[in-house]
Amino acid sequence: MQRPSILVTGASGALGSLVVRALGDGTARVIPGSRTPAPDDGRRIDFDDPASLRVGFAGIDRLLLVSTDELAVPGKREQQHRAAIEAAHRAGIGYVAYTSMPNPATSPAIFFAADHVATERMLAESRIPTGILRNGWYQENLLAYLPHIIADGSWFTAAGAGRIPHVAREDAARAAASLLQSAEPGIFDIAGPHPLTIEEIATAVETVLGRALRVVQVDSVRLAVELARQGVAASMIPMVVATEQNQHAGRFEIGPETTRRLIGRAPRPLHDFLRNYAEALLALVR
């Protein structure tokens, strides 16, 4: 039987590169796709360039559509995804896996949730068999702001008792690779092993890193002020605030069962992330 050809968009990015590596067992012909592919290694895929999609999708059996990072211009990401889906349909691609988010239709706090709702709808309307990967927030996202919190010693939060199951990016990549190999259609929640409150994450930080954190419940306005005071990048603050609003509403509380089935083991716990990234997490501690 001929090996299926699988194109991974965003293959030079953090997730896409891990998916390419996870698919490297030889059971499929894996083609990395990016706006600037390495010479003789992959195809040029630019969602803003229809010609690149027409040429790049030719002869492809299965596609991983990694949601783009175009968030600055409202509607731009939806437009890019529409172009990719229409090009996939014209190319006769037989299966698309798409990286979405948990509960997009009921997560109004997340300013890009509507893009995922629209893309999931477009995929359904395309009639292409589709696997929707509703990826939880990556453990690695914490590197953008947790070091500042650890250095300050206080974790100001608007999440209340809401829980979030941070997932290792590598586990999300392995789940995507599994779907691309099986071409299983459906909606798949991708999560870490345990949904945790901010209090529980703070306890894990103290256990693993030896740094006690005082958790202070505040409203979203105060949270933004405190994050700025702690030195978190201004571009990151709206995302943290929106995440905690969504967490407070319980919209991230998904389980690990599907992830465990797809990757063949339990998802990696947050404690492992804290140990593996201890140096980076403690970099601002004086």
Describe the structure.
- The chain is an alpha/beta fold and 286 residues long.
- The protein has 2 domains: 5-135, NAD(P)-binding Rossmann-like Domain (Rossmann fold); 138-167 and 193-252 and 268-286, UDP-galactose 4-epimerase, domain 1 (Alpha-Beta Complex).
- 42% of the residues lie in helices and 14% in strands.
- The protein contains 12 helices and 9 strands.
- It has helices at residues 14-22, 50-56, 76-91, 113-126, 146-152, 169-182, 198-209, 220-230, 237-248, 257-263, 270-276, 278-281; strands at residues 5-8, 29-34, 43-44, 62-65, 95-100, 130-135, 154-157, 186-190, 214-217.
- The strands form 2 sheets. The protein has a 7-stranded parallel β-sheet with strand order 3-2-1-4-5-6-8, with helices on both faces. Strands 7-9 form a two-stranded parallel sheet.
- Strand 5 (95-100), helix 4 (113-126) and strand 6 form a beta-alpha-beta unit.
- Helix 7 (198-209) crosses helix 11.
- It is globular.
- The model has no long low-confidence stretch (mean pLDDT 96).
Give the strand content: 5-15%
What share of the residues lie within helices? Answer: 40-55%
CATH topology of the largest domain: Rossmann fold
Order of SSEs: EHEEHEHEHEHEHEHEHHHHH
Q: Tell me the Rg in angstroms.
A: 19 Å
Which homologous superfamily in CATH is the superfamily of the largest domain? NAD(P)-binding Rossmann-like Domain
Distance between the termini: 59 Å
Mean pLDDT, all residues: 96
Q: What is the number of independent domains?
A: 2
Number of helices: 12
